[in-house]
TrEMBL record:
This is Predicted amidophosphoribosyltransferases. GO terms for molecular function: glycosyltransferase activity. Pfam families: Pribosyltran. Belongs to the ComF/GntX family. InterPro entries: ComF/GntX_DNA_util-trans, PRTase-like, PRTase_dom. The keyword Magnesium does not apply. Keywords: Glycosyltransferase, Transferase. The lineage of its organism: Bacteria, Bacillati, Actinomycetota, Actinomycetes, Propionibacteriales.
């Protein structure tokens, strides 16, 4: 495998996103660093939020490489970590994963909907369903560089949801202030959905209490 990894780096520029070692995906050391219990955030307007990992240092490179640079070979590893966060909420077998929708301009620029792809793959790992029932109703500005209050104001009223008869889990790649998750929760509740909580791959702030998942996803 090390020969394959070296050839991939030579021919395709493949590197571990955590340490830049020649590797097709995360190297064993970085993967071991990610393989840890998820953490639970303080409830946001009654919404429990679970993060599989801290955003830094490994995922601050890994997630952007996947969604912005088209490193689709990282999708399975990221979906596994998302599945770990979902599992920590203890969803029943009829739960549906609902991804937070990206801005349409971002989807067009990337050429794919990363949130929907990760939600679908994590759902399959857990034997659950996934549905894109959230949509953007107005654009909203780019969130980068905005503080908590500005993010909340920027996202308020930007989403609408269809009804899902069973329980749902909101999923996203990163949580920063929680503004997008709060808006997704608002829209789903307005549509009469029963929201169990939210699960993300990475927390940009960290320092949440560690939780042990009742079930897990295998590598």
């Amino acid at each position: 495998m090390r020969i394959i990894d070296a050839l991939a780096d030579l021919l395709l520029g493949a590197q571990c996103p955590g340490c830049d070692e020649a590797r097709w995906g995360f190297c064993p050391s970085c993967w071991d660093a990610l393989d840890q219990p998820p953490s639970l955030a303080p409830r946001l307007d009654g919404l429990p939020i679970v993060a599989a990992n801290d955003y830094r240092p490994i995922l601050s490179s890994g997630i952007p490489r996947y969604k912005d640079d088209g490193a689709l070979h990282l999708e399975r590893a990221l979906a596994i970590r998302l599945a770990v966060a979902v599992a920590a909420l203890g969803p029943p077998g009829d739960a549906i994963l609902v991804p937070v929708p990206s801005r349409p301009a971002a989807v067009r620029s990337r050429g794919f909907d990363h949130g929907a792809r990760l939600a679908g793959r994590a759902a399959r790992l857990l034997g659950l369903g996934s549905r894109r029932v959230l949509r953007r109703t107005r654009r909203g500005a780019d969130q980068q560089g905005l503080g908590a209050g500005a993010r909340a104001a920027n996202t308020l009223g930007t989403m609408r949801a269809g009804h899902v008869p069973g329980p749902v889990v909101i999923v996203d790649d990163i949580v920063t202030t929680g503004a997008s998750l709060a808006e997704a929760n608002r829209a789903l509740l307005a549509a009469g959905c029963r929201v169990l909580g939210a699960a993300v791959i990475a927390d940009a702030d960290g320092n949440w209490p560690v939780v042990r998942p009742p079930v897990g996803a295998r590598r």
